[in-house]
Write a structure and sequence with these properties.
alpha+beta; D-amino Acid Aminotransferase, Chain A, domain 1; D-amino Acid Aminotransferase, Chain A, domain 2; 2 domains; nine-stranded mixed beta sheet; 9 helices; 14 strands; about 25% strand; globular; Aminotransferase class IV; Aminotransferase-like; transferase; BCAT-like_N
Amino acid sequence: MSYWFAGKLYENEPLSIDPKNPALAYGASVFTTMRVYERSLEHPLTAWREHCDRISQSVQAFSWPQPNWQNVIVGCQTLLTYHPVLRLTILASGQELITARPLPQNLEQQQTEGVVVWVAQGPQYQRCLPSHKTSNYLPCWLAMQAAKKHGARDAILSTDKEWLETSTGNLWGYQSGHWWTPPLTSGLLPGITRARLIKTLTSQVITDQPWTLDLVAKFECLVYSNCVVGILPIHTVLFGNIKLNYSSTHEGLSALRQMVYRPAMRKRNC
């Protein structure tokens, strides 16, 4: 495995880190995961600037030193030759750790057929500091592991009354000509793809309505989004003893996919 750490490329070498490092002892680091299109950080779909802003804002909020951004750029450009998905982690010390991985298996099939998700209920699945993507991702990881035991691809994080997001992305539901996505005030991560879609959909999206069971039961189709998968239809939700079914071939999905890729289309037309 190849990775980049603190300004240096490592190939098939173990990572040495002090056991007392706050990143290891307390999860004191922030990260972002990006899909690099056409091996270019500047490709509009890569959203490089948005990923950098996410990291920078969290680092500033926590009063940590900013990373050496030139090292970050060189590290990302080096690793994107291996795989298209990069995870950029910034430790509380300001050091950068960058890893690369391939796209998820069967992604194209899942984007066409849809997936099963499981609703995670209970305080053990509540994310801490939801407005920041910290490396303390234990609740999300626990939810994902529980979802797999139920035969699901992902988990929906929830409170007693609301659905919030999946363990890896933001939720979208379609009803009566509008797309809905849970409000940030409910306590969820402001995803980069989520922000792009809201900007593109404008008046077609409703962002201020909490996702109660009464609301989600009315949706015609359901998807989740993140920077790696784009949008992924959900055809079945396992919610306790309830099973909710949604269309994975709804006409609204095609329009939403076009919205996701519109930045690249605009660039080609310029």
